User: Which sequence fits this backbone?
């Protein structure tokens, strides 16, 4: 089978899902601006590690379930499709909102946390983030059809891991400079509109499949 189309869909879903504002992104932004670039990168790598963990669990566990049960496949497609549509709704609502962007508070004042603590904080944020779970559910159901070769699951997880490093570390590098937040705020509505269209199309495709 030609695995390239499935990889492109999986990678595209992952990039949009991870790049769209969420708890991990905002935490990386705040840490980078308040604790410095190294701390932001450490947190970003922790987030990527959590993402890879969920990816491996999804690829192994959900892949086996999907192969064994057509009912589970339908349920997962419905859940993944509805979640993508919900993300589209949230992105559209954000695009229509005129409220200023809110960045969560950074580390508490006092002795600065070590890079290891920033890494573990990023790991913890992503491991308990429902968004990460459902994004991976959507990725696996979109990119890993029943009967797919094992190499496809490995390529999906490995490729998304590499993309995760690019996305989250870029957040840390870019938002090390506070003025960038004002630039993002100016483009936020256009970015939200594009994200809404992508998730809306992907969610509709998943439900109709």
Assistant:
């Amino acid at each position: 089978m030609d695995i390239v189309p499935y990889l492109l869909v999986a990678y595209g879903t992952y990039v949009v899902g991870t790049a769209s504002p969420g708890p991990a992104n905002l935490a990386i932004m705040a840490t980078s601006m308040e604790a410095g670039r190294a701390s932001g990168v450490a947190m970003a790598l922790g987030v990527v590690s959590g993402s890879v963990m969920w990816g491996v669990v999804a690829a192994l566990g959900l892949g086996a379930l999907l192969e064994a049960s057509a009912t589970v496949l339908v349920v997962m497609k419905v859940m993944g499709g509805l979640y993508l549509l919900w993300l589209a709704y949230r992105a559209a609502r954000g695009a229509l909102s005129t409220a200023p962007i809110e960045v969560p508070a950074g580390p508490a004042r006092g002795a600065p946390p070590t890079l290891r603590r920033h890494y573990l904080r990023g790991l913890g944020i992503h491991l308990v983030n429902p968004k990460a779970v459902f994004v991976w559910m959507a990725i696996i159901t979109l990119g890993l059809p029943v009967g797919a070769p094992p190499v496809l699951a490995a390529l999906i997880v490995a490729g998304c891991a590499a993309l995760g490093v690019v996305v989250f570390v870029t957040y840390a590098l870019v938002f090390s400079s506070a003025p960038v937040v004002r630039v993002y705020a100016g483009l936020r509505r256009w970015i939200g509109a594009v994200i809404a269209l992508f998730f809306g199309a992907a969610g509709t495709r998943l439900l109709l499949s």
The chain has one domain: 4-208. Helices lie at 4-19, 23-35, 37-68, 70-96, 115-127, 130-143, 150-174, 179-208.
